[in-house]
Design goal:
Length: 109
């Protein structure tokens, strides 16, 4: 991993901060394949993506589906409901220079 990761109660939650310089590839930052999470299936994702050069895309992978969280410099908070199987937050970079701040926590029900 390019940055500093502090895991929360499990592999699905925590904080991540990173600075990138010409990054190419994928980082699977949070997630897993659990059938049931002890703390429920609702997650809140707060991010700040800064793209200085190249391209970057922050995605949510749910099974065989992939959803874009951000692909431009932006910050926001979104909520996701995970289902059994693959659930990951992934950063894809192509000559990406910039930064990412990410907080994933259990959403209020």
């Amino acid at each position: 991993m390019q940055g500093e990761k502090d895991e929360g109660v499990d592999a699905y939650t925590g904080t991540y901060t990173a600075a990138y310089d010409g990054f190419n590839g994928k980082e699977f930052i949070f997630g897993g394949t659990a059938l049931n999470r002890e703390n429920g299936n609702h997650l809140q994702v707060t991010y700040k993506l800064t793209i200085e050069d190249g391209t970057a895309e922050l995605n949510w992978i749910a099974g065989s589906d992939e959803y874009s969280i951000a692909n431009i410099s932006s910050e926001d908070t979104k909520e996701y409901t995970i289902s059994s199987g693959d659930n990951y937050i992934v950063l894809k970079g192509d000559h990406f220079s910039g930064s990412l701040e990410l907080i994933v926590k259990d959403a209020e029900n």
